[in-house]
Specification:
Layout (H helix, E strand, L loop, with lengths): L1 E9 L6 H12 L5 E9 L6 H11 L3 E6 L5 H9 L6 E4 L11 H9 L5 E6 L6 H18 L11 E4 H7 L9 H6 L5 E6 L13 H14 L3 H30 L7 H33 L7 E5 L7
Parallel strand pairs: 1-2, 1-4, 2-3, 5-7
Antiparallel strand pairs: 3-8, 4-6, 5-6
Length: 314
């Protein structure tokens, strides 16, 4: 019997997680040929979601709980869940009820039929703010530029993955995991399934601008050296422009000995080149800092406790 492992990162969802889990159970009850487990990862949520998760797990052994010691972010929470899965297929979804579970078998069809290694929901319109939509589009464009993501492919949170892809992801032990980068370096056999995203059942999203920026920087530095190559090319271009400008000034001075030296233009050039140098040094520093953190074996996540996993799993 094949098994499906559901992995749900949980943050500020004490009012919605029971509904999400109940819908998974109802959906799976229609297909008796599949066994399943539901792994809920509490990413140090400030609300009382952990109590809700533990209560559900105590009544159903198929519901399993991982409690992280601090907030590591959604991608690290997914990796923590991946480390515990038993299933042949892994389904990831949100804890807010927006993922359309009634389309689960549409999502699963390409992986079950061996037409894809990884499938995602393709929403005609994301049910989020205009600011977040703009940020998502920018992140998608940067992923295309930096890690060669297909231009028409947009990653979403409702996805089904074959086990071998997750096993390959788990070989990445460094901090700052980036699911898109880990996926694209493993497989390009990715299919999207059209469906409509639901409205949030309760409240608003908690993916702040700071978290979006951190994720964007993670994508920049964790899986691509293209920013460094761009910096090198930019340095060559600026050096060339400076050389040409220097020749121009010398020739102009020879032709017009009485020419007054331009203080304003000199300061503008110095400030521009200085700003570019600081930007490039900051980018190099970001790479070096991440190397330093990796060398110090900074953890990808830390599990404080877990429930309903076999003793041998911890």
């Amino acid at each position: 019997m094949s098994m499906i492992s559901f992995v749900i990162p949980c943050y500020c969802s004490e009012l919605t997680i029971e509904m999400v889990v109940a819908e998974i159970i109802d959906t799976m009850s229609l297909r008796k040929e599949f066994d399943y487990e539901i792994i809920c990862v509490n990413d140090a949520s400030p609300d009382d979601v952990l109590t809700v998760l533990k209560k559900m797990a105590s009544n159903n052994h198929q519901i399993k709980v991982i409690d992280l010691a601090r907030n590591f972010g959604k991608h690290a929470a997914l990796m923590a869940g991946f480390s515990k899965v038993k299933g042949d297929y892994i389904v990831c979804l949100d804890d807010d009820g927006q993922c359309p579970m009634d389309h689960l078998w549409d999502l699963m069809a390409p992986v079950l039929e061996n037409r894809a290694d990884y499938t995602m929901a393709k929403y005609s319109r994301k049910k989020q703010s205009a600011f977040k939509n703009m940020g998502s589009k920018f992140n998608s464009w940067m992923s295309h530029v930096l890690i060669n993501k297909p231009k028409d492919l947009r990653f979403t949170n409702f996805k089904a993955i074959k086990r071998f892809v997750v096993d390959e992801m788990l070989k990445y032990n460094n901090p700052y995991p980036y699911i898109e980068g880990l996926t694209l370096r493993t497989t390009r056999n990715i299919v999207t399934v059209p469906m409509e995203e639901r409205e949030r059942a309760v409240g608003e999203g908690h993916f702040t601008f700071r978290k979006s920026l951190a994720l964007l920087m993670n994508g920049f530095t964790a899986f691509s050296v293209k920013p460094l190559r761009v910096s090198s090319v930019l340095g060559v271009i600026l050096a060339f422009i400076g050389f040409i400008y220097g020749i121009f000034i010398v020739i102009k001075r020879i032709m017009n000995p009485g020419m007054t030296l331009g203080y304003s233009s000199t300061m503008a050039v110095i400030l521009f080149i200085g700003g570019m140098l600081m930007l490039i040094l900051g980018l190099i520093g970001e790479y070096i800092g991440r190397i330093y953190i990796c060398l110090n074996n900074s953890p990808q996540y830390v599990i404080r406790e877990s429930q309903n996993f076999d003793e041998i799993e911890g």
